[in-house]
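Query structure, 230 C-alpha cells:
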C-alpha cells in the first residue's frame, strides 16, 4: 500500500457515517448531557439519545477534535469552549452559530485548501470535494461532507446549481509587481526619509545634512531664476 504523505496524515476529514447535520446533533447532545461544566459523555449514552450506533458517534471525534470542537477524552466525547458555545448559539441563533465557526476556523487546513482550490474561480461541489479529499483515506463522502461543513461555516458559498465559490472578499488577487521607487537624484536621502527619521538624526548629522542641502539649493537657484525669467 502506498504510504500517505505527511500533509495527508495531518488532515482528518469528517466521518462518512453521519451527515454534517447529524454531526451537529451529536454536538448538541453532548452539550445537553455534559452541561455547562462540559463533562465528558460516553458514546453509548449519546447514541441512545439520538438513536445512532455508538461507533458512528465515536467516528465524529477525529475531525471535530482537529477542528477545535471536541477535546481529548478517551472513551468519551467532551466539548471545548468553542464546541459548547456553538451548541448554545445553535439553540438560539443559528446565523451567529455559523459566524462563530467562520471566525474560529480561519487558517484551518481545510479553509486554506478551499481558498487554494477556489481562488481561480468556481468549482462544482463534487469537484471541490474530490480535491479536498485528494490523498486522504476513506470513501468519497468524506470530501462531500467536508464541503458541507465549509458551506455551513460560511467559508464557502454554494449557489442553487451546486457551484462553490469563495465568499466575497476572500478572493486572493494575483500579486502585483512592486512599484519602482521614484528617484530624486541628489535629493534621494531627504525626499525618501520620513520627518521622524530626519528629526531623529544626531545633532551633528542633522546640521551636516542641512548644510549639504543648503549648498545644493544655492547652486540650483540661478538656474531656477533663469528658467522662470526665460
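Result returned for the query:
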Amino acid at each position: 500500500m502506498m504510504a500517505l504523505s505527511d500533509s495527508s496524515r495531518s488532515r482528518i476529514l469528517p466521518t462518512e457515517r453521519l451527515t454534517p447535520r447529524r454531526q451537529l446533533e451529536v454536538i448538541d447532545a453532548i452539550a445537553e448531557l455534559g452541561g455547562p461544566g462540559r463533562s465528558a459523555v460516553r458514546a453509548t449514552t449519546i447514541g441512545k439519545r439520538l438513536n445512532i450506533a455508538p461507533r458512528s458517534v465515536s467516528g465524529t471525534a477525529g475531525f471535530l477534535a482537529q477542528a477545535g470542537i471536541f477535546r481529548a477524552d478517551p472513551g468519551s466525547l467532551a466539548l471545548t469552549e468553542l464546541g459548547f458555545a456553538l451548541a448554545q448559539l445553535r439553540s438560539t441563533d443559528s446565523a451567529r452559530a455559523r459566524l462563530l465557526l467562520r471566525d474560529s476556523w480561519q487558517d484551518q487546513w481545510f479553509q486554506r485548501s478551499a481558498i487554494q482550490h477556489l481562488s481561480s474561480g468556481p468549482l462544482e461541489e463534487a469537484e471541490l470535494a474530490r480535491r479536498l479529499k485528494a490523498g486522504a483515506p476513506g470513501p468519497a463522502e468524506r470530501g462531500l461532507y467536508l464541503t458541507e461543513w465549509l458551506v455551513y461555516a460560511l467559508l464557502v458559498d454554494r449557489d442553487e446549481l451546486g457551484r462553490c465559490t469563495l465568499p466575497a472578499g476572500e478572493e486572493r488577487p494575483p500579486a502585483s509587481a512592486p512599484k519602482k521607487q521614484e528617484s530624486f537624484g541628489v535629493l534621494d536621502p531627504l525626499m525618501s526619509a520620513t520627518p521622524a527619521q530626519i528629526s531623529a538624526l544626531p545633532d551633528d548629522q542633522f546640521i551636516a545634512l542641512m548644510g549639504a542641502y543648503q549648498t545644493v539649493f544655492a547652486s540650483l537657484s540661478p538656474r531656477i531664476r533663469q528658467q522662470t525669467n526665460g
